[in-house]
Amino acid sequence: MDMTPLILSLKAATIATILVVLIGIPISYLAAHMKRGKSIVDVICTLPMVLPPTVVGFFLLLLFGKNSMLGAWLMEHGIPVVFSQTGMVIASAVVSFPLLYRTARGAFEQMDKTLVYAGQTLGLGNGTIFFKIVCPNCLPVILAGVILAFTRAMGEFGATIMLAGNIPDKTQTAAIAIYTAMQSGNRELAFQWALLIVGMSVFFMVLMNVIIGRKGGRTWH
User: Residues 10-39, buried b or exposed e (16+ Cβ, 10 A)?
Assistant: First the structure.
């Protein structure tokens, strides 16, 4: 059993999760405190979660294809997206983003605001309040969102195969390996990959519950 698809899945999921955290946490925090336009931001950020992954992949293909302005510009600068590992990461990040966004936004909204007011009374800046007060108090739920996003990115199939394709040793992830094995009639290999993915997903879900339980978990929307 060649483990390259698993390695590619873990690699893409790790990079995608880092991107999702760097982009998702600030957007979630801003969305939680928006007075106007919150519903619009919420719809845009949540849309990839409710759309079929193949639809997400189709629009990503339109956005990053060689015939689009962005795709052509990236190609000129030596950054191909379609049928590349970059495409794997982008597809995984887009599909998993809503899980972190919804989780983190809920945590920010439910946080005890008196702690923030106390920090403001003490003359702390917004940056200090965010990193010293808000993040530590919301950390358990944010970590749960990170695990959910990573698990979703690791098992991504539809958007990835649309944007990055199914190239062995390059863009063939574990989820795509199951599809390929079934297409070739190798049910035993497909079953092995399926069990491996299920096992890893269960592990990360248990880890998420342990983190929330130890930190006195919070609920989120």
Answer: bebbebbbebbbeebbebbbebbeeeeeee
- Structural Rg of the chain based on CA atoms: 19
174 found inside a domain: yes
Task: Give the range of the structural domain holding residue 172, as residue numbers without chain letter.
Answer: 4-214
Query: 45: domain CATH number?
Result: 1.10.3720.10
Mean pLDDT (the chain) is 90
Tens digits of per-residue pLDDT, 135-144?
888 888 899 8
**How far is the C-alpha of 48 from the C-alpha of 98, rounded, in Å?**
7
**What's the rounded Cα separation, in Å, for the pair 60 and 64?**
6
Q: At what angle do helices 4-32 and 174-183 cross, to 10 degrees?
A: 130
Decide if 140 contacts 215 (C-beta within 8 A).
yes
Q: Is residue 220 part of a domain?
A: no
- Phi, psi angle pair for 2, to nearest 5°: -70, 125
User: Alpha helices of the chain — where are they, by DSSP H?
Assistant: 4-32, 38-50, 53-64, 69-76, 85-110, 113-121, 126-129, 135-154, 158-163, 174-183, 187-214
- What would the two tokens of residue 108 be? 């920010």
Q: Which two tokens stand for residue 87?
A: 């495409």
Q: Is the pLDDT of residue 94 over 50?
A: yes
Place of tokens 């993915």: 197
Instruction: Identify whether the C-beta of residue 60 lies closer than 8 Å to the C-beta of residue 97.
Output: no
Please give the Cα distance from 109 to 142 (Å, whole number). 12
Report if residue 221 sits inside a domain. Answer: no
N residues, the chain: 221
